[in-house]
Amino acid sequence: MAWWKLHKRDKPGEPEGAGGAVLASAALVSRDQVRTVVGKREDWQTEGWDFYRAVPELRAGVSWAANGCSRARLYIGRIDPDGSSEPIPVEAEGDDEISADQAAALLAPLQELAGGQLGQSEMLRRLSVLLDIPGESYLLGYDDPTSGERRWLVCSPSEVTSAAGGATIRVQLPDSPTARVELSLEECTLIRLWRPDAEVAHRPDSPIQALRDPLRELQGLSAHVLATVESRLAGAGLMLLSDDVAPATPQQSDGPNPLHANPVASALLESMATPLKNRDSAAAIVPLLLTTPGSPKDKLVYESFATELDANVLPLREAAIKRVGIGLDVPPETLTGMADSNHWSAWLTDETGIKMHIEPKLGLIAEALTERYFRPAWEALGVPDPENWCCWYDTSELRQRPNRSPEAAEAHSRGVLSDAAYLRELGFSTEDMPDDDEQRRRLLLQLATSSPQLAPAALEELGVPLPDAQQAAATDADRAPVSIARPRESSEEEPPRNGPPELTASAAAAAEDWRVSCLDMAVRRALERAGQWLLNRGGRSLRGQYRDVRLHQIHVHLGVQAEQLDQMLHGAYQLLYDTIPGDACLHRVVDDYVRALLVTGEEHRREYLARALAQAQCEGQVA
Question: Is residue 272 part of a domain?
Fold first, then answer.
């Protein structure tokens, strides 16, 4: 028996659903409710569906809210005891408070509901439409008799009717007009969700009830405009000709069946028909010439049957659209447009629409699912304290907010913002966080660059080979001064920054030194910053031209002027200064080396860096 069947329905006649809780906006339908509620439709609900199909403005507003709900993501979370924050999502692998088995039990009903995340998106979309039009809906779960698989349907009140005196329900399936299934309440889960009426809570309510008059007005005005347009197309009117009017030139009969027996009428009709057959004909712009004795004023009379469009109709229709926009559960700008809005006010409108129109509806759905579906399921699965957990929604994909990444970075560095919140502000998810191995590698690198005493052990853990004592001694003996980096006093004149140092065998041996492994990252980061500066300065076309080139190699392809170095390298060594504070000599070596590469257009190589470090002989370095 499936786990969802393990929860016993309330005693017959009790209106409460699962767990005995009373919820005004959702109920696990009992046999008594099947007889009294299921299949009952109000007149305004039928009228609302007619308006939904006929009035495009209403359909657009309802679709806006439905599409927004479909982009939300349902998740299972732990309820905050003081209610000051949203529920904390449950991770599949568990955490310090719950085990992986308990997390799997909590997530199992969500994974089954509507076939997973894709099916839940369509479920939320249709639930939103039904809550906005008839004000109520049914969520049905049953085992398909043909496939044996669990199937979930969102049904309108028109698709669910009672049968056999309330013992069973008859459901219209979406597969075809003749596809129906009859189920007993013991064989399925049937949950009714509705907007409770403000006066009588068991009745459904929706914005359509109050919008019937504005919708009739809008529909009537649109019908008037359409009838006026059609009247102008129904007939071309009536033209009266005097008998003494003749064409300027005699008309020849064109075959045995001339266009008209009267030569004037024939010429007139031909001049009208020719441009319709040939758009390039001169008859489209040249008037027809007729001659008449005396004044021609009373010889030709044209009577039109068309109705002139009332000048007040269009303003009245715009006013009716505005009334519908105000009455619907959507921001009015969704229907009236945002022509007078700037970027910030448009963003504020979207943010307000999410908070005031989409999230309350999602909250109603999430609360109904929690009380009538998830908690009975958790009780059946033996989850302890099911009242501490709930189904909730995540609308982060709907929000387009101004860039708050600098503030988030500052708060995260101070330890007042979690990693998950920081990633969310940057537009990433927790799945993008580094795993334990990557975290361990980063910690070892930080130890290697900040602590000379721990560097050999950290590099050994990272798999970086270290030179033995004999090789290190040979390296010291081979060191010779070079011009790129040498120790100097602060008052000493700065030496010229030339190209990369000449590669020797001793420098190749020193490339394995731990300093090279640690400082190589700082050099690459500085070159990447310079490369990004060069691309940004060149514009979009330059970025497209070098999109396949790594950032730390851009300077090889683009020339760098010496006066640009300070600007492009501003802030490039901040991480180096933080991890190796106070070592001015080492800082100067790295900066001189990077500047030499940029000016000469040479590509960075570890051997070049090792040569510069070997010749610098900064105090505190360990050979």
Answer: no
* pLDDT tens figures, 108-142: 999 989 888 889 999 999 999 999 999 999 999 99
User: Which residue among 399, 414, 442 closes a domain?
Assistant: 399
Q: What is the pLDDT of residues 270-300, one digit of tens each?
A: 777 777 777 667 666 666 667 777 676 777 7
**CA–CA gap between residue 199 and residue 203 (Å, rounded):** 9
> Within this chain, do residues 135 and 165 fall inside the same structural domain, yes or no?
yes
Asked if the model's pLDDT at residue 216 lies above 90, the reply is: yes
Q: Which two tokens stand for residue 78?
A: 């732990």
Identity at 67, one-letter amino acid code: N
Judge whether 578 lies within some domain: yes
Within a domain: 425: no
- Between CA 123 and CA 432 the distance in angstroms is 28
d(CA 621, CA 613): 9
Q: Are 190 and 203 members of one domain?
A: yes
Q: Are strands 300-303 and 26-28 parallel, antiparallel or unpaired?
A: unpaired
Q: Are residues 370 and 506 in the same domain?
A: no
What residues contact 102, with CB distance under 8 A and at least 6 apart?
94, 383, 384
The verdict on 197 and 67 lying in the same domain is yes
- Which residue, of 380, 399, 418, is where some domain finishes? 399
pLDDT band for 483, please (50, 70, 90 cuts).
very low
Q: How many domains would you assign to the chain?
A: 3
Nearest to 98 by CA among 357, 386, 374: 386
Model confidence, pTM: 0.56
> Does residue 587 share a domain with residue 474?
yes
CA-angle at 615, arms to 460 and 579, nearest 5°: 50
- Beta-bridge partners for 303: 238
Q: Other CB atoms closer than 10 Å to residue 342's CB: what's the count? A: 9
Q: Are residues 69 and 142 in the same domain?
A: yes
- Contact partners, residue 527, CB within 8 Å, separation at least 6: 551, 552, 553, 555, 594, 597, 598, 604
In this structure, are 222 and 145 located in the same domain? no
Boundaries of domain holding 111: 3-7+41-207+347-399
User: Quick check: is 516 in a domain?
Assistant: yes
Structure tokens at 328: 């619907």
Q: What is the largest CA-CA distance in the chain?
A: 127
Whether 494 has a pLDDT exceeding 70, the answer reads no
Looking at the fold, whether 514 and 551 belong to one and the same domain comes out as yes
Using CA atoms, how far apart are residues 569 and 588, in angstroms rounded to an integer? Answer: 13
Residues with Cβ within 8 Å of residue 128, at least 6 apart in sequence:
62, 65, 66, 68, 69, 70, 361
Alpha carbon dihedral 584, 590, 595, 596, in 10-degree steps, equals 120
